[in-house]
Backbone:
């Protein structure tokens, strides 16, 4: 099944940082919503997860927080935050 964005859906962009070898995932309408990722493949995973409201498979709290940093969907942020909270409980 091919995912197609609906009108009004958040579409993030990915670009190479000018200052280091990282990549920036950002909201083109609000650059305050951005995060730095070291690998291009992971940057695209974050972009895809946030655009489609998919719960990330990772257990990396840092990477989960990156998903929150670029999202503006309160329900999605709450879902990811719940995963972070459950991971912190197990530590």
Residues:
């Amino acid at each position: 099944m091919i995912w197609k964005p609906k009108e009004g859906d958040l579409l993030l962009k990915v670009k190479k940082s000018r200052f280091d070898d990282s990549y920036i995932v950002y909201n083109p309408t609000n650059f305050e919503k951005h995060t730095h990722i070291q690998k291009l493949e992971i940057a695209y995973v974050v972009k895809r997860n946030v655009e489609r409201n998919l719960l990330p498979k990772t257990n990396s709290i840092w990477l989960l927080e990156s998903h929150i940093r670029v999202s503006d969907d309160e329900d999605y942020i709450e879902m990811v935050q719940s995963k972070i909270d459950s991971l912190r409980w197990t530590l």
Notes: The chain has one domain: 13-90.
